[in-house]
């Protein structure tokens, strides 16, 4: 008997790419996502890196203020990330 899983199994559930979304992302959300991808790639993954990377690129918090660790955590919670 083989221990390799059957990859042709049709019983696997179908996963839609954005199945947890309840709306299309706003322009703000698209810009934030694109900037976060750039920051993760070029600056780092630590929270301090992310906050400083967003601020350096002038992508501000929803209230227009520079990001803080607390405001970033709150926004990610609000967005469901």
From TrEMBL:
Pfam families, sorted: HTH_62 (PF20552)
InterPro entries for this protein: HTH_62
Compositional bias per record (Polar residues), positions renumbered to this chain: 1-10
Source superkingdom: Bacteria
Region (Disordered): 1-25
All copies of domain Recombinase-like, residue ranges: 11-81
Protein name (Swiss-Prot/TrEMBL): Recombinase-like domain-containing protein
Lineage: Bacteria, Bacillati, Actinomycetota, Actinomycetes, Kitasatosporales
